[in-house]
Amino acid sequence: MSTDRNLEWWQKLLVALKLWQPPHRTKHHEVRDMERPMPPPVTGAYGNTVVSKDRPRLVPQRDDQRNDELDDQPADQR
Known about the structure:
The protein is mainly alpha-helical. It has three helices and no strands. The radius of gyration is 29 Å and the shape is rod-shaped. The termini are far apart. The model has no long low-confidence stretch (mean pLDDT 75).
């Protein structure tokens, strides 16, 4: 029996008699059960449109220039 556990005397007795084991919970179990954060929005990869002009793609795509031209035109002329 390891001495790093903080068990009461009766818990140590049950462990020594092999009648009971304390639950095995590590940091992995705590992190696994935490609420997951929301994923970021998809921006411009694999056929999705570019979401913002202040963060353009690192590798320009064929439709980016056309989309920029369309954004400059009024909606009724598209």
